[in-house]
Every structure is written in C-alpha cells, then in structure tokens.
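Support case: user asked for a sample of complex input and structure output to validate their parser. Sending the pair below.
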Amino acid sequence: MPDLQTIGLSHYLIVGAIMFVCGAVCMATKRNALGVLMGIELVLNGANVNFVAFGSDFLRRNPAYGIGLDGQIIALFVIVLAAAEAAVALAIVLNFYNNHSTVDVDRADELKG
Amino acid sequence: MSWHALEFYFLALMACAFALAVVFAANVVRMAFYLILSLGATAGLFFLAGADFVGAMQLMMYVGGTLVLLVFGVMLTAQGPWVSIRTSGGEWVLAALVGGSLLAVLVPTAMRLDPAPNHEHAAVPGTAHKSENKAPDAKASTEPQTTRPTATRIGLGLIGAPTSGTSGYLLPFEAISIHLLVVLIGAAYLARPKRRARPKLVESDEA
C-alpha cells in the first residue's frame, strides 16, 4: 500500500491506470464514432501520465526507475501523435457522416464478409 | 498533509472523475466537455510532477488544439438522433468485466513499484549515497538542479544535443515532423468537399 502523505510514483501510475481503463471501456462501449475517438485520447493521456511520472524528479521513487528527461520528450511525441491521429480520424468520421448520414459505428458494416 | 499531496489528490480526483464521466455520459457534447476538464486536470498533474513544458504543451496542443478539433467534429455531426446513442446492457457488462480485470492487473502492479523508503534504497547499491539525501520524505523536491525549467533541456534534447539526463532526439523529431505534415495533408485530402454530393445531403445543408 503506497504512502498517502508523500506523493510517489505509484500514485501517478494509479491515476494513469484509471484513465487508461476509462479510455479502453469508452472505446469498447461507445457507438458514436467521436466517442471512440475520445476513448483513444483518454488512453494516450493515461500513457502520458506514466511517462511524465517516470521522468519526474519530484516524486518519491526508487532511483533505479528514473528515465530522466526522456520521459517528458516522449510525452511530447505522444501529444503530437495524438493531434495527428485526431485530425485523420476526424476526417474519416466526417467522410463517413457525409456518405451515411450517421456516426454510429455499428452501421459501418458494409465490408462485413 | 503537505500542499503537494493536497493538490495532487485534488487534480487526480478531477482527472479520474471526469474520465469516468466521459465513459458514463450518453450525450456526446457532454462527453467532449468532460474530456476537456479531464485533460486540463492532467496538465495540472504534469505541472505538479515538475514537467512544466509538457504541461504547457498539453494545455496548448491537447486542450487548445486537439479537443477544439474534436468539438468541431461533435458540432458537425451531432444532429437530431445522433447526439446520444445508447449502448446495450450486454455490452456494458462485457466492457465492465474487461475494464475491471485490466484495472485489477494494473493497480497492484503500480502499487508494487512504490518502494518503502528505507529498505529499497539499500537494495540499489550504485545510488545508495545519493538516495540517502532523498530519503527524508518530500525533501527531494527541493533539489536545486531539478527545479530549473525543463524547456531548455527539452529543446537541446530535441535538436540532438545529448545533455545530462537526455539522449539526442533529432531523428525522432524529424520523423515526427514529416509525419505530422503528411498526416495533415492527408486529413485535408480526406475531408475535402466532394464534387457530386448526393441530393439529400444538399437539402440538409441548406436546411
């Protein structure tokens, strides 16, 4: 059980895990294509919390786990990738909406064999 | 309880509660709003972890850029029956099962990573003398060399100068720049207006 008084690495990891699981459940349950996209954003953000936590010098942790500033740089890369992914996914969703007049992903079953 | 801990619990509670709200909200407009609040609280967590540059970028690019794009998508598509689409009960049960088991794996793993302050430091020989300074509770956060702003060191790392604490990241930086350019061109190509829209769509645009 982590210490409640001093904020350590595991506190951040638990927050990241909760956001990750929320995003995964969101991706699995939402039928709106934009809801699925929001789930992806939550998952990427949960991973980002972990990267920043491992790279932080301000948290109580085992020094062997430190990855220094690399964690923050990788978190920046993740943010850029999330922006790119959101742009492409939004373009696809708008195209789907123009062709089918809906954003329900369950209706996108034309390729079903 | 220190201010650091209090602020962490406040921001962590906001981030997690609004992430849960995103999952349980049925209205897609509310989901977008909760997502903005959750990611904003996460930016606060980054500031609290000493990652000032990443926190600012989270606010500027994620909350200010990506989510505005998402809100535009919501506004363009959330019309009439598509504002809230219900999920069936069976899917909820299955998703709760999968999510709960994932959480049951992740959270105990995260708790095991947190060392007890004293006996773990003895277990890591190379850092024993350094960690003795850090051992008394949160005093590690007042080390002078770590309170500098991180923007300079991140910038040096991105242009490929390996300073203390970073490796050189010039090649990934260039790769991700080209990636972003290609992706934006591709997105503009995908979202371009069609030459021949179907008559039904033209009517709905005018209405």
